[in-house]
Amino acid sequence: MPTVFERALAIVVGLEGGYCDERADPGNWTGGHVGAGELRGTKFGISAAAYPTLDIANLALPQAADIYRHDYWDRVSADRLPPPLALLVFDAAVNNGVCHAVEWLQQALGVATDGQLGPMTLAALDRAVATRGGAAPCAEFQARRMAFMASLPTWSTFGLGWSRRLCTLPYQSLTMGVS
To answer: What's this model's pTM, rounded to 2 decimal places?
Structure first.
């Protein structure tokens, strides 16, 4: 039986896909901006902007899984989140950064936004799930993420694909609690 992390990883890797070196994507450049540094691309969602010294083209899935676990899953305390929300927050951490993902969760829960997922945020999550159920924090989290992504200057280029991703994730999150 796959763990919640393994199921979430399979979904995120499936959304991220294989190797891509689209020149218009700032994440594909080691300098984090189009034309800055080397065009090394992105593979499994691991980008040259985030990992400028990594050989992206030759990245293997087990190596990517280690990066995902350490740099994203663990940093958003995803093992502590309900599985559907863990997928949403994990995907956002990978795609938009850990700090953004935690801030959107905090905003969805109505707590102080500091980008650190600590005991106060987790207690607020427990209260929200107990009183409103798990769907409300998930929906609010996704709304915050969508608003942010729609405000990005690259929305006109990548917005339709991002919208598909954000609309697909809640349906995929429903499978996260199933054993």
So the answer is: 0.89
Whole-number Å distance between alpha carbons of 23 and 19: 13
**Tokens found for residue 48:** 């040259």
Would you list the DSSP string of 10-67? HHHHHHH-S-B--TT-GGGBTTSSTTSS-B--EETTEETTT-TTS-GGG--HHHHHHH
- Residue 1, both tokens: 């039986």
By C-alpha distance, which of 69, 32, 72 is closest to 50?
32
Residue 20 DSSP class: B
Task: List, in order of start, the domains of the chain with CATH numbers.
Answer: 4-173 (1.20.141.10)
Q: What is the pLDDT of residues 44-76, one digit of tens each?
A: 989 999 999 999 999 999 999 999 999 999 999
Residue with tokens 């199921």: 7
d(CA 39, CA 52): 10
Using alpha carbons, select from 37, 13, 39 the residue that is nearest to residue 25.
39
